[in-house]
Amino acid sequence: MRYLLIVLLMLLGVTPAHAHKPSDSYLSIEIQQQAIHGQWDIALRDLDYAIGLDDNADGQITWGELQRHHDAVAAYSLARLEIKADAVPCINRTTLHLVDKHSDGAYAVLRFAVLCGAMPRALAIRYRLFFDLDPSHRGLLRLQQAGHAQTAVFSPEQPERTIELATRSSWREFSEFAKEGVWHIWTGYDHILFLISLLLPSVLSRDGKHWQPVMYFRNAFFEVLKVVTAFTVAHSITLSLAVLGLIHLPSRWVESAIAASVLLAALNNIYPLVSKRIWLVAFGFGLIHGLGFASVLNDLGLPDDSLAVALVGFNLGVEAGQFAIVSAFLPLAFLSRHSCYYQRLTLSFGSLLIAAIALFWLLDRSLDMGWTALISVF
Amino acid sequence: MRIGRNNGFFKPLRLLLSVTTLSNPCLNKNRPYFLAVAGLLGLLVFGNASQAAPYLPSSANEVLERLPTLANGSDQELRKLRLSLNNDPQNLALAIRTTNTLIEKARADADPRYYGYAEAAVRYWWKQPQPPSAVLMLRATIRQHRHDFDGALADVHEVLAEEPRNAQAWLTQAVIQGVKGDYGLALNSCMVLKRLSSRLIAATCAANAASLSGKAKPAYQLLKDTLPGTTEVQEQLWALTALAEIAARLGDSGAAETHYLQALAFKQRDVYLLSAYTDFLLDQNRPDQVVALLKDDTRADGLLLRLALAEQMLGSANSAQHIEELKARMAAYRLRGDNIHQREEARINLALLKQPKEALRLALLNWEVQREPWDARLVLEAALAADDFNAAKPVIAWLARSKMEDKVLQQLMEKLEQR
């Protein structure tokens, strides 16, 4: 009778057949030029069921409890994921533990480096997480390479996949690095703010102690052209030298110097010391910004055999991104150069704002304090 | 490595900016212009900070997850069972007990993870060529949950070949036959149950099948007359739910309401009952009661769907967020390649997203697998919304053949035939 009742219960459940969510993990693997990175999102509920996370048994998992189990989580999961590069086993090494929310709750996010001997032609992945505890568990793989993504689902019936990696082509490499270059100049606010600080006065000219709007677009255009060209030439020189290994400076110095360059450029608009030949300033500080670009490029992982392609691609990407910013800036600035808004607000207040941001950066980077520490001082 | 930058850094500056704007006389003239530029700048600075991404919690006390627990201590029991089973994974009796407990839990909360755990508990026998009957029954139940109805029926047939007096197997068979729309076969299975199980179970089984194949009124009366014979709570719950559904199909909303309230009065967690009752309320145009019942009960997709429908009827502000949530859940199902949610997905597309063509496609796919009144209703409603009478024709013909009595379906068919 008891079983009959249980079946009754189950039968009633037929219609709204699913709810909550069956167990899934999200495994993403990104193949870069010289490195393979993994990120694995695993539901806390499933981890708790497998290895127990709720130490105080209060039905809640806190960040503290998860932190105490980080080693166990990494050991348990990574032991159930084998990655082979052309039949040679790779080593998965945890790099970072984070947390994310998915539609059915919180997930532990495990970031790891996949260390293989050489860049493989094919990657064989064998997945068996939770299959012993929950055969309906699925591992959802997303493998990304050069902007191209492949997906696969691991199940107890199909725990293994071999994925042919795209062969490298110079053109793809070039465009990938170019994209990174554009992306870097757009998201690296320090380069934008430096350039804007130098360009703000380009539609004005200094007449004794006052700024006067320039008469002709031509004048502003050539001023901008000189500044941008000088900046470009300078950062291309140091970027190439650094990537070729001919100069090397610690990144903290470089980053601090970049922040200082933004600060000085902005202050120069408020208390002008240099008002002629701004392009010389652009050139001098451009040398430092080039070193900053180089460290980004190095972080991306440089292909030894096609260094030139990567270098030229990245540099052209940076120039393209910069060109887009300048071509948006110049017409706007030129049209509004007469308004009191431009001189008082954009030039003075804008520069003050940029100087304030740069000062934060400078302190933050040179003293290596987190920004939160800085904010709490105020 | 670069030294980190953080967008949160700009917060104090934003404050500074807003204070200064108020006191600058130059600005009053140029305010719209300034705001536009400030907005652009803000977009540039904050634009890429808003997307959701993995994060580092700021405090060790931050609660990341609340684990599902049952209040009645069955969790503790389950933990003990799992532990014993780990030490003795080939102990059939222990494995069956564990699986049954897990399926009870799965059922109470409509939580599919427990079906997976249940499968794991009997995994030693699962792939054997001839598993023991008890394992076959559990496998049938789990396969049925995954909408593998043919696989489930095959398991049940195997059990019945060995044990023709296994009441559980006959009941499971009757229900699967009903879901597939084979009401004649279902009724035969229920008849056998008459000799093997309690009267109310056999009556509910038979009334369900008969009410869907042209004998709704006598089926209702028979079940109503049999009801007082038992005090068994689960049996009464099932019978009352069936009575309510038959009454609703017959258009007697007063009787349906009474039976639903009688069933709810047992205060047993029952997602099926809640779903059926809230569907009834939605049809009665009483969305505020649906919201009151479900507003804190959104983990089960079926319940979230009904809540979102009610909120949409009320024009509530929460509806957009709940629709997004449902879309995310459906996307997650699609990623894993499951199609057991096609009925819900069709309904989401039809009623919430107003995508009748996609709804019709999903409803027709679902109709290939399940043939309950709601499955037919979704095809008809979607066909009506998509203005595609031809798509509904096979379903209308099938409904006529099976003599299904259902007021809503009747009205839909009339509307379609006027086209």
Instruction: Please trace the helix and strand order of chain B, writing H or E for each element.
Output: HHEHHHHHHHHHHHHHHHHHHHHH
Helix share bin of chain B: over 70%
Quote the beta fraction of chain B: under 5%
Low-confidence spans of chain B: 1-29, 37-51
Largest protein-protein interface: A-B, 91 and 108 residues
**Spans of at least 5 consecutive residues with low confidence of chain A:** 1-19, 372-378
Strand segment count of chain B: 1
Number of strands of chain A: 13
The profile of the biggest β sheet of chain A is: 6 strands, mixed
Order of helices and strands of chain A: HEEHEHHEEEEEEEEHHEEHHHHHH
Number of domains of chain A: 2
* Helix/strand/pairing category of chain A: alpha+beta
Helix content of chain A: 40-55%
Main sheet: strand order of chain A: 6-7-2-1-9-10
Tell me what you see in this structure.
The complex is a heterodimer of chains A (378) and B (419). By secondary structure, chain A is an alpha+beta fold. Chain A folds into 2 domains: 20-164, no CATH class; 170-377. Helix content of chain A is 52%, strand content 22%. Chain A contains 12 helices and 13 strands. Chain A has helices at 2-12, 44-51, 63-68, 70-78, 170-187, 189-199, 217-243, 251-270, 278-300, 307-335, 340-367, 371-377, and strands at residues 24-31, 36-43, 60-62, 81-85, 88-89, 91-102, 105-115, 122-127, 138-145, 148-154, 160-164, 204-207, 210-213. In chain A, the strands form 3 sheets. In chain A, strands 6-7-2-1-9-10 form a 6-stranded mixed β-sheet. A 4-stranded antiparallel β-sheet of chain A has the order 5-4-8-11, with no helix packed on it. A two-stranded antiparallel ribbon of chain A has the order 12-13. In chain A, helix 7 (217-243) packs antiparallel against helix 10 (307-335) and helix 8 (251-270) packs antiparallel against helix 11. Chain A starts with a helix and ends with a helix. The model of chain A is unreliable at 1-19 and 372-378 (pLDDT under 50). Chain B starts with 10 loop residues before the first helix and ends with a helix. By secondary structure, chain B is mainly alpha-helical. Classes of the chains: A alpha+beta (378), B mainly alpha (419). At the A-B interface, helix 1, helix 2, strand 3, helix 3 and strand 6 of A face helix 1, helix 2, strand 1, helix 4 and helix 5 of B.
